[in-house]
Sequence to fold (191 residues):
Amino acid sequence: TTFNGCIGLKKINIPDSVVELKDNTFHDSPLSTLHIGKGLAAVNTEAFYKGEYNFDGQRTGNRSIWNVSIDPENPNLKAEGSCILSANGQQLLAALGALNSYVVPEGVETIAEGAFAGLLSLTDIVLPTSLREIGSHAFASTNLRSVSFEENLKKIGDCAFSYCQKLTSAVFAEGLQEIGRRAFESCPIAS
Fold:
């Protein structure tokens, strides 16, 4: 909660010396521009969370960081629009902008825990054929309307799509081996 509620904080440059951001570092701070130095090793979406929890304990709100840049010498991370990926592009770690729709880049094999969680603006997602695992709470409390899973997907984590209250369609492909606990809790899936 280092910068919790700093309503005037719009831009931050995380210096090379910072290697980790803890949960709620920028909670409820209206950041719009973020630059990450070469020292940060990983990104936790909880560090940038903006919003509240509802009566079910689910997050509500949006992150609104549209301008994300990462030092090209950072060996661990890279930016793709307002999303942060591992340097090799195999893991999507965090979505920081209030996205309406998003095409996950081909080559991403894992969507990290909570990567899109609480992005109420998110209504449409396109998953790549390279995707093998969706982490717990990855899309929880978004406004996704439908989702189609490709055949290489092996695991959907616990609560991955929980409280997606507009999710009416989920299409599963052969190859899926594990669906986590409460993965689709409180989703009005009809087909």
Q: What stands out?
A: The first strand starts at residue 11 and ends at 14. The radius of gyration is 16 Å. The chain has a mean pLDDT of 88. The chain is about 0% helix and 25% strand.
